[in-house]
Amino acid sequence: MGRYDADVLIVGAGPAGATAARWLAEKGVAVLLLERQRLPRYKPCGGALTRRTLKLLTPLDVTPVVEAVVRTLTVEAPDGDRFTISLPEPLIATVMRDRFDAFLTEAATAAGARLREGEGGVRCEVGDEDVAVTTNRRTYRARFLVGADGANSVVAHQLGLRPHHRALSLVAELTPDAKANWDGSIHLLFPSQLGGYAWCFPKGTHLSAGIYTLRPMLPDWQRWLMGYLGRLRLGDGFQRHRLQGHPVPLAGKFAQFHRKTALVVGDAAGLADPFTGEGISWAIESAQMAATVLWECLNGDLDSLQPYTDAIRHRSLPELRAAMGFARFLFALPQVCCRWFLRHEAVLRNFAKLLSGEVTYRTLWRKVWRKGFVLLARPKG
Ligand SMILES: Cc1cc2nc3c(=O)[nH]c(=O)nc-3n(C[C@H](O)[C@H](O)[C@H](O)COP(=O)(O)OP(=O)(O)OC[C@H]3O[C@@H](n4cnc5c(N)ncnc54)[C@H](O)[C@@H]3O)c2cc1C
After folding, report:
1. Residue whose CA is at the smallest distance from ligand 1 atom 31
2. Which pLDDT tens digit goes with each residue over 90-122?
3. What is the dihedral of CA 268, 273, 277, 278, to 10 degrees?
4. Which of 380, 297, 307, 293 is nearest to 340 (CA)?
5. Does the ipTM exceed 0.95?
6. Which domains does the chain have, with CATH numbers?
7. 227: enclosing H helix or E strand
8. Helix (DSSP H) and strand (DSSP E) numbers for the chain
9. 154 lines ligand 1 (CB under 6 A)
């Protein structure tokens, strides 16, 4: 390696950074992973892993850190009508992000990646040949840089790659008492005017509840979550002032995902599902795509990181755009969508499969175009 500290420097040890580190280290690449905090650390997140996420992680088995497996979905319309479906296969598995992220990072270090905790990247210089990252302790040099430092990415900001759009999400971890009376399902409510949805599902010892909205400027968004908890009779004793909103960055149509010898992955790249706010699977998938391109560059098979931006544009963005179309439709007309579509078992089953990542938005759109109006024509059953 000579004058370099590593072949690849990765800033941020969330799902994106830890996955890129593991994948590259398994190929024998010298990887240095810089994490600002000490692991395990709290990360505000629902911690819902879809089946798509679990599939992408294979062969890594995350069962040791899974808190609960959910098979039943209840969707509630604004007027209070509820529709429930149970699937034989799991819809989601839930995790606490402190344990999950530490688990992924341990897998990366076990594969040979080196980890520096408590070291935040504060400045990066990216050239045609190599990169330098200065942390609160020292400067590191490497052939390539991966910005995996999340929603407020310093790397994306400094490289001019910051996503332009933002959704907002907030999460509350409820007490074990609340879980005692919960039926083990995932509950989703689509309130009119929220421009998003509210959720509640079980973890190991407690419940996780939150809201997601495409309207980050929504006034008094804590009120929506408190209202939701009240509706579920779970609001007792919950401290409103403890609720904080967190950005979910969303990449635009013409976004760029690399610059010279650096690229961005996961939230730093704005790769999250605009309908659900789910970002872990996109973080993992983008990390795998990034690692593949970096590996080929290091081997001399590629001479630029452009194929990474191309891969994201061709493989991820069309699906995320289809998700945005879905979000705009359902969030604008939640009552109509629930009354005319989701009340049908077949539609609800497809919707559950969509949430679990088993079917894609594009597949579902095709079905909606073919069958949606047939459903509309049927009288309410
Ligand atoms: C309230 C909320 C609920 C959510 N619920 C879900 C859900 O249920 N399921 C789902 O799939 N997605 C969910 N998401 C989205 C999901 O949390 C993110 O998409 C996912 O964490 C992205 O992973 P990442 O590795 O890109 O970034 P992160 O998980 O944010 O990891 C970034 C890492 O970089 C570190 N870091 C930051 N800055 C620096 C720096 N300068 N130097 C070094 N290290 C740095 C951070 O400490 C962190 O460890 C939710 C988001 C929010 C806000």
Report:
1. 14
2. 999 999 999 999 999 999 999 999 999 999 988
3. -90
4. 380
5. yes
6. 6-65+95-165+249-324 (3.50.50.60), 166-248 (3.30.9.10), 332-377 (no CATH)
7. helix 221-231
8. 12, 18
9. yes
